[in-house]
Write a structure and sequence with these properties.
Blueprint: E1 2-8, H1 14-28, E2 35-41, H2 53-61, H3 76-81, E3 84-87, H4 90-99, E4 106-108, H5 117-120, H6 123-141
Parallel strand pairs: 1-2, 1-3, 3-4
The structure holds 4-nitrophenyl phosphate.
Length: about 140
């Protein structure tokens, strides 16, 4: 069982998209039982809020539900519990390293930043980038 946590700034756009895209890819590959997948934020800005509607609609357009997900901040326990912690952009990475100095599990989802659709409004590009990263994770860890 590989435990994977996705992290972004607010946990209402990119990281929940990654959580549910990878869950979908794993299910389609018949590998759901091999993974535990979740997502969290570096900030407390959106604590308790559901996935942002445009992100939810983008997932739905690809046949993916994110029902029931609410935002939460990453904890020290997450750093112990999860095997792989993927962040969406370099500023998330800096913030994680300052919150949990010395933790070695943090890595970027892609070698480039996943632009924040909260600011760009471009949920399609976010979806495409995140799906690319999730596909790679499945190939590497699956
Ligand atoms: P996310 O997008 O990090 O992809 O979930 C954001 C959502 C909310 C905020 C920032 C980014 N916010 O500042 O509230």
């Amino acid at each position: 069982m590989k435990k994977i946590l996705f992290v972004c700034l607010g946990n209402i756009c990119r990281s929940p998209m990654a959580e549910f895209i990878l869950k979908d890819l794993a299910a389609k590959a018949g590998k759901s039982a091999d993974f535990f997948i979740a997502s969290a934020a570096v900030s407390r800005e959106e604590e308790g809020n559901p996935v942002y509607p445009p992100a939810r609609r983008e997932l739905a357009a690809h046949g993916i539900s994110c029902a029931g997900k609410t935002a939460r901040q990453i904890t020290r326990q997450d750093c112990r519990d999860f095997d792989y912690i993927y962040y969406m952009d370099s500023s998330n990475g800096r913030r994680l390293r300052s919150m949990f100095p010395g933790e070695t599990k943090f890595q970027p989802l892609l070698s480039r930043d996943v632009a924040d659709p909260w600011y760009t409004g471009d949920f399609e590009t976010a979806y495409r980038d995140i799906a690319e990263g999730c596909q790679r994770i499945l190939e590497e860890l699956g």
